[in-house]
Amino acid sequence: MRIQVMEIGFDDVTLDEAVDIAMQHIERGEKCRVVTPNPEIARMCRNDSQLCDIVNSSQLVLPDGIGVVYASRILGRPLRGRVPGFEFAEKLLDRMQNTGYSVFFFGAKPGVAEKAAEKMQKKYPGLLIAGTLNGYYTNESAVVAAINDARPDVLFVCLGAPKQEQFMALRGDVLTPTLMAGLGGTLDGLAGEVKRAPDFFIRLNLEWLYRLLCQPRRIGRVIKLPLYLLSAVAARGKNRHA
Ligand code: UDP
Question: Residue 191 to residues 72, 119, 178: CA-CA distances in angstroms?
Fold first, then answer.
């Protein structure tokens, strides 16, 4: 079931359900685009109808970030919880072990995807990694060819928003992987380049605060969270008076 939170319809799924749906697509060979919008992406959608269409026409739209869940509560149709892209990625890799399906890591700075691959190969010994490629390129056709040549079933696209969503949608017809997922800074996390917040912050839904403390230059991005919640309050007011 999809729950509309302003511009975006989110799938009301748990992490396990999201991974189940992803695995079903892979097993059936049915193309699947996964997006993980957070308040920042949701606000981009407000001013970019093409991005908004790309997000909403994806087969799996995961609520990445507590801000989206709070907004759904404000609007009176609460999502069951958040499904962070990073956790979705890790769980999918775990489930792909010993299935014969392979994954390709695309994105992040040179060397990061390789490091993530090394770490994930150790963590999930039964995982097949078809290849890696950094996200700083000039020839997009060459990137598509390199990915297709490696014949992965799953492609992690970690270019940040909206680049990753546009890449998946505009190149979707020529890319051969069954499932593609736009996962922001996930490869940095898998490689250990960026530390995930300690459990304490995650439990209190304060992961955004931890990231801000570690990288104060993110303030311009973090400020989008209260702005997003304010838009939800305004949208609720409009709905009531409609
Ligand atoms: N990135 C990339 N190519 C680009 C721009 C960004 O591969 O042209 C990568 C960047 O190195 C980082 C990721 O995209 O690994 C974006 O991470 P960010 O933390 O901004 O994403 P978030 O998870 O916050 O959405």
Answer: 32, 6, 24
